[in-house]
Design brief:
Layout: H1 6-9, E1 25-29, E2 52-58, E3 70-72, E4 77-82, E5 85-90, E6 95-100, E7 106-109, E8 115-122, E9 125-132, E10 139-145, E11 153-158, E12 164-169, E13 173-178, E14 184-189, E15 195-200, E16 206-211, E17 216-220, E18 225-230, E19 238-242, E20 249-254, E21 259-264, E22 269-276, E23 281-288, E24 295-303, E25 307-317, E26 320-326, E27 335-337, E28 343-347, E29 353-358
Antiparallel strand pairs: 1-22, 2-29, 3-4, 4-5, 5-6, 7-8, 8-9, 9-10, 11-12, 12-13, 13-14, 15-16, 16-17, 17-18, 19-20, 20-21, 21-22, 23-24, 24-25, 25-26, 27-28, 28-29
GO molecular function: anaphase-promoting complex binding; ubiquitin ligase activator activity
Pfam families: WD40
Protein name: Protein cortex isoform X2
Length: 395
């Protein structure tokens, strides 16, 4: 018999590392709906979790820290920014091509895989180029040059039809470009720091952007009006991801101390919360599986003063870890999914690799996207103590 204690289920670190008298974590579940079977979000966990490394690429001196520098096309191409080079691997032909670009900072494939948008520089001006990656020569279709004051375009995201490209600048300004002519049709300035991440909700009802100090803005995509602000008081960069089925659940994670917030965006209500009490655990990246609804959380646990234990937790809920991906060396600094959701790519740290993991089989049954949900918890009812105060500026 294995003794299972509730205090160990949610703990992301080794229980032996916990200082006596300090609680392991602070957590709160407020969603209680029979439809979710007591999960914090819609999820159909795999019956037999079995993740294994499918392919590994050796990338000497690879030091990319941002998922904006890697993308996976529906046509099987994988593009990676590597210093001043754009490296593209065509999986079907097993061909790798390298293109030299001046100061590249972000890239993103169009939804149909026809174009690859790349932000770089021409002289001292930031520019976003649109490459035709269907042609054998990978020609530059069009581009947009920005004023020098914007410095770099750090984040790119496409809308679902592929007719608009959203660009986040170092200056905090967001531009909306039409594709493929790349004309500026809208710009707005809601951040005062470099924008590091832009993500659309699955059905493109909302768009969220985050800056380098963890401040988030959620927009109504149809009008580009602001739906809500989320201010960070710690000033640390956060990572977030939308649940792939609901178009309303946004998971926000902060590195130290390791914390996860589950926010229901339409109602601006928090429906789940977790925070590690000690500072030994760092969250590097989070991402939902499109097929299963499981949440992948890449963490690093400090052992002693210099050593770290790196792994990816596969979570069906805030209190259910259903699988673990362990790393012999390095950690997963970001997670990028294949278009069909069966594989996930991770970038190593110390071992300088890019690994493709086989996550689950094809043709999985998906959760119904029209699942009924009526939140029963309002932000004003939050009372998580001093550790939660930095999140109470949601408006």
């Amino acid at each position: 018999m294995i003794e299972v204690k509730s205090e160990r289920i949610l703990q992301l670190t080794d229980p032996s590392l916990r200082t006596s008298g300090i609680p392991a974590c602070e957590k709160r579940r407020v969603r209680n709906d029979k439809y979710f079977d007591n999960y914090d979000w819609p999820c159909i966990p795999r019956l037999k979790p079995s993740i294994y490394a499918d392919k590994t690429f050796d990338l000497p001196d690879y030091n990319t820290f941002c998922e904006n520098m890697i993308d996976w096309s529906v046509n099987g191409q994988i593009a990676v920014l590597f210093g001043h080079d754009v490296m593209i691997w065509k999986s079907k032909e097993d061909i790798t091509m390298v293109f030299n670009v001046r100061y590249p900072s972000a890239l993103a494939y169009s939804p149909n895989g026809e174009y690859l948008a790349i932000s770089c520089k021409t002289g001292e001006h930031p520019v976003v180029e649109l490459w035709d990656v269907q042609s054998p020569s990978f020609s530059v279709q069009s581009g947009q040059i920005f004023e020098q004051k914007y410095n770099h375009i750090l984040a790119l995201a496409w809308d679902r039809p592929g007719t608009h490209l959203v660009c986040g600048s170092h200056f905090g300004t967001i531009f909306v470009l039409s594709a493929p002519n790349m004309n500026i049709i809208m710009k707005f300035h809601k951040h005062y720091l470099p924008i590091t991440i832009i993500r659309f909700s699955p059905n493109r009802r909302y768009m969220a952007s985050g800056d380098e100090e963890g401040n988030l803005v959620v927009y109504n995509w149809g009008s580009c009006s602001v739906h809500l602000y989320i201010y960070s008081r710690r000033g640390l960069r956060v990572v977030f991801d939308w649940h792939p089925w609901t178009d309303s659940d946004l998971v926000i994670s902060e590195k130290v101390p390791a914390s996860i917030i589950l926010l229901h965006v339409p109602s601006k209500k928090i429906v789940g919360y977790y925070q590690q009490a000690d500072r030994r655990t760092i969250i590097n990246s989070i991402s939902f599986s499109k097929l299963t609804g499981e949440l992948l959380v890449s963490i690093s646990n400090r052992i002693g003063n210099v050593n770290y234990n790196h792994k990816i937790l596969v979570m069906a809920s805030l209190d259910r870890v259903v699988d673990v991906i362990a790393f012999a060396h390095g950690n997963a600094r970001f997670l990028v999914w294949s278009p069909d959701g069966t594989h996930v790519a991770t970038s190593g740290n110390e071992d300088e690799t890019l690994t493709m993991w086989n996550f689950c089989a094809r043709n999985r049954k998906r959760f119904p996207q029209n699942a009924p949900y009526t939140p029963n918890f309002h932000l004003s009812e939050c009372n998580f103590g001093s550790q939660f105060k930095k999140w109470n500026n949601v408006k």
